[in-house]
Amino acid sequence: MPITVASCFASADLVSKGRVRWDENLPERAPGVYVLSLASEVNSGTPSLAKAPIDVVEIERLLAARPYLQIDGSRATAGLLAQRVGCYWLPTEPILYIGQTSKPLRSRLQQFYTTRIGERSPHAGGWWIKALTCLSDVYVHYAPTKDFKECERRMLRYFQANVEVALPELGERRHDGMPFANKEWWTEDNRRILREHGIRYATSNPKGI
């Protein structure tokens, strides 16, 4: 069964306080955690889409902004980049991204909305979300908490432990079981793990350039 937003929050002893559509103002002014999902309701098991809805225009915009972007050490093309990002799509899971913030949730989500693909700040980490054509169907579910870092880590570990077994085939590259747009997570002993996606210089240029 797909992982629900409610169960994801519950794994960190939290309950969703509300939701807004992507690009809508979020009222919460406390720090906390948030989940981007294609499901509007927290208990919905609605599956995701069969294939990643990659926005080729945004991919080309990224390459224009970051012409030194590489995949596996070689200069990227729009087709290869779209394919690499798209291969991490989970067709059975509506949850796309799990995030946390020490800032007011309202402010952080606004930063997420307004950071253009390829920009280094203020919210570069979720740029894979910006590469999708389905943003109008994305919902932001949120829960305020002062323990935002640990809650996010628990939620990510819960997702990885409960994701559907039938993960996409990546050739020699094995899917890590994380939500589509999350590219780092932490083990229970707080070791940071980075997704081995092979993409470099998507939000910055090589040193000296």
Determine the structural class based on helices, strands and strand pairing.
alpha+beta
Classify the oligomer.
Answer: single chain
Strand content: 15-25%
Mean pLDDT: 93
Q: Rounded to an integer, what's the Rg over CA atoms?
A: 16 Å
Number of domains: 1
Task: Report the major sheet.
Answer: 4 strands, antiparallel
The number of helical runs is 6
> How many strands in all?
9
As residue ranges, the low-confidence spans are: none
Q: N-to-C terminal Cα separation, in Å?
A: 47 Å
- What strand order characterises the main sheet? 1-6-2-5
Give the SSE order as H and E letters: HEEHEEHEHHEHEEE
Shape: globular
Q: Which range best describes the helical content: under 10%, 10-25%, 25-40%, 40-55%, 55-70% or over 70%?
A: 25-40%
Quick tags:
four-stranded antiparallel beta sheet, 209 residues, 26% helix, three-stranded antiparallel beta sheet, alpha+beta
Summarize the structure in short:
With 209 residues, this protein is α+β, with helices and mostly antiparallel strands. 26% of the residues lie in helices and 17% in strands.
